Fold these 4 entries.
Entry 1:
Amino acid sequence: MTTTGLGSVPGDDVREWMRAVLELVDIPFLPELPARPYGDMLSRTVAVLTELAADLQPAGWRLTGGGDARASLDQRRARALLQEDLDVLEEYADGYEGPLKVQVTGPWTLAATLERPRGDKVLADYGARRDLAQALADGVQQHLADVRKRVPGAEVVLQVDEPGLPAVLAGAVPTASGWSKHRSVDGPGAVELLSLFTTAAPTIVHCCAARPPIEVFTKSGATGVAVDISLLGEPGWEQVATAAEAGTTLYAGLVPTTGPIPEPDKAAEPLIRRWRELGLDPDLLKRAVITPACGLASAPSPADARARLQLLRRIVDVVGEAADA
């Protein structure tokens, strides 16, 4: 069994965090520090959008054009910050060999967040959201190639963050006026765009919202699904069971991002108990990757977030013993 984090961390010292993730977890990841300007997951993803231009408005990011359109000052700053972070990765991961994870906002969450040039979300326009997904997929390919070049010994893993997909599927994303909702997207449509991202590298789809659409993730070709175990209801556990038996790796979010830090056995208990109740093979449980429930940017301090990451390996020991029992 192994451990990793899900991307975001508190504070503004990327060097401190690069050292930490290389020491504290089995699958190091490129940390996201949203406390910095342009350090949040949306800004980082806009930085990867090499074929589309965008600017930052009071309400959030807005597309301004494609192809030869000039990137805004905000987008150039986001790209510069990403390059600086990759420089730090290259420095601290010199000689590293093994899995290395990078994160990107998924096409559906991005389409439900980005504004079109003339208003409303990209989600409202079928052609626009497909163009956005394709541009993002192309940008991700270049991003992963850059990471592989900088850290030649890395086995790069891609994490696609889709916290907004449940609302997209449910038709719960508000229109610009706020008086109605965008039309829902069906499962096959969601799979179609997600599948653009699952061929570039082993891909985890992460959704720490309630009712994560695990079946959509697995049908898109994801090799892993990352969920908050505390939010899974019965349908979610049934999808976890089906996915695990089909060979999909469960990234089990067991450590809360805020509040008291639990003891390892208490944190591990929900996963162990439900695994046994479902009658799943204990050997499949040993394949799980233990993670925080979601990103750690909301942790009260860097020290607190580090303590939560340190807890992960102690939980692995508890789960491993239960699987062997």
Entry 2:
Amino acid sequence: MTNEYRFEFRPYQRRFLRSLTTNHGKWDIREGIILRLTDESGKVGWGEIAPISWFGSETLEEALDFCRQLPGEITDEIIFSIPDELPACQFGFESAWEWESEFFSMPNAQCPMPHAQSYSALLPSGEAALNQGETLWQQGYRTFKWKIGVDAIADELKIFESLIHTLPASAKLRLDANGGLSYEEAKLWLWTCDNLKANGKIPIEIEFMEQPLPVEKFQQMLELSLSYETAIALDESVATLGQLAACYQKGWRGIFVIKPGIVGSASRLRTFCQQYQIDTVFSSVFETAIARLAALQLAAELSRNNRAIGFGIDHFFEQEETCFQSLWNDL
């Protein structure tokens, strides 16, 4: 039996409190699309399309074009035939379709937030990280991510030496290069981490280095993962489900950072993770509470090694509305 839904969508913009700086550049405004599906009984399903084109998804304009060409009434068949070239659309529409809980379909439903200890908090790049770590620790965070590959490596290594002694001894730190290091720079970072640990000079745990090299340097990242004790996680290399499957087939058995908002079909991701039991870290794409709820549900279902999830990003925005109907009305 084919179900039909009334389909509505509204674009949104959210300005970062301060620019997010990565190797990809500066990001000032998060743009996306909120979806609403209403079935014949009046039950509402919420979804969100939150693309990051420079990370591997479709562009916002491509997502908007797709939504604009759809009729006002859509079916299950349409939802599950969205092409792989539109992974953020796949996730957004499937999330709305899977909105089965009666509680979350109520008009005033809100997104539950796990305790901060289960989140990895994103630190600002550069020296600003030294000032915010203590504040985030007081808020309950115990795992932190710091962007590298943004400034000169000599400067970042100096800041790193200070950062590992600024954070409390029980903290975990992730170093995220966003594919911005050269092979020699990646080796220097990994050697530094290994050397500090071997000599007992690092009071905190370096959990892993995230995406040290560009996507096309997969084989070199695989070699590095076998040559150093400090773990490596793939991120940009596994942005979509197709990329994730390809890296697994090419031999990657390390950590996979999965951004549900742009990975593609949630149902197919679920099948893949359950079949291959991969080591995952689920991470935010700076979505609203709507997509975050869907992503957190996947993380709770598919995470295996008790790793903090990468959703500690609330401090990059003004306090957002978590009542979904109010969020919709405000657009």
Entry 3:
Amino acid sequence: MKPTIRVMLVEDNPEYREVIKLALEDETDIELISQFGTSEIALRSLQELSTRKAPDLVLLDLRLPGMDGLDSLPYFRSALPDAKIIILTQSDDQADVLRAIGRGASGYLLKSATLSQITDGIRSVMKGGAPLDAGVARFIVASLQSKLPNDQVAIDLSPREYEILTLIGDGLVKKEIAEQLNISYSTVDTHVAHIYEKLEVSNAPSAINKAHILGLFRN
């Protein structure tokens, strides 16, 4: 017998909640254990549940009264560290997609999806997959393809920071950089700290690698 996937639905539209409820009732391996109209009530309910009764997966709408899905997503991840979260929404806004995935959503489906696509998505994510609406998937691929050549614009290094990063890439240490640029060691140290922060790295090798990936050393 297949283990049952326990699902929590967070959706403010009662008619759509009923549609999902009826669809999941026909599935022998998926059980809708709870449904809520707001994130706040859903999160409060988790405080009263034992681990044994916690959902394996949350279907989360984005446009909710009170705390919306994007804002509540990190709280669900914290309350249910072992659960998967699939965004189920009408929004195909690119910013929503990127924020949701960046905040830990395991999948992103639109309400225009068929019920079989939703149930297949639930099974897929529990097996380690990442179900995405076809249009959303195309956008993500296009975004990744176009991001790297232009990403240096978003890094926003100052001319001095770029100069120091280039010298780090040439293999110079902080003392040598200070001597070459005729500035103090502490000034170099401050610039390097800012470079690491902007590149989101913690050391020189990682900074060099990230700079190469982003094309910062290209002529």
Entry 4:
Amino acid sequence: MVSAPHEAMHRIFQEYPGLFSRVSEVLGVNFSPPTSVTILPTDLTESRPVERRVDTLMRLETENDEPLLLAVEAQGKKDLDKPASWMYYLSYLYAKYKVQPVLLVVCQDRATAEWAAHPVHIGPRQWSSLTLRPLVAGPHNMPLITNAAEARKDLALATLSAITHADDPDIGAILKSLSAALREAPESLTGPLVELTAQGLGKRPAAQQWRNLVAVDLSFYKSPISQEIRAQSRAEDVLFVLEQRGIEVDEEIRARITECQDPEILLGWLARAITASSAEEIFTTE
């Protein structure tokens, strides 16, 4: 099953295609910012029963350079079969679209990033017929943005920084700077970036740090994660009231309360918890 961090690492380029030119600049390769972008199908399956899918695929048009195909792959760990697949992707894309393809691999740990960046050659030792040289973005080369003013200059790059540095000891400072920068950004930008950051952190401890930062101003973060945070907070309130009143809450009822994601239902349960004589009574509809 595809993980949330995997989705965030490549989807951010769909949401903000111009991010590629900034990432490539950080990586020491200059690509002009796109003037137009076309999202292409990611299914690279041939007519034979072999399914091949790239994570994100886009055609980028620029003013200064020829168009290019950008294939973005999110890589969570070393996979010895991947380089052959990546070579196939690039060859297939060039054969199909007749446009030069570029592969960008995004990682969250240095070891995987360094492995992915290692050139892979196809052909005998004396003559390499094909060489794979992907661009690789990871914690080893993405900027560590711990200043809100710096994050404000490029919110998408700051978000990718948080995602690729998810396991960094300074992740708390990175998230604080990103949160502070987002408070002053238009809502059209904040919603997707808040969600992508949450996805990118996955189940790491930093995910709870991000939730706490988001919870500081829920009226600002109008997104699914704010709904989830409100539900979590209200569930804790329901349990707190019941426990303070000395009402026993068994594991089944506790699970039902904590797993509820509807803030309005939880608000009703909270109101009944004040007068209920048993935990089961809070579920009684009026």
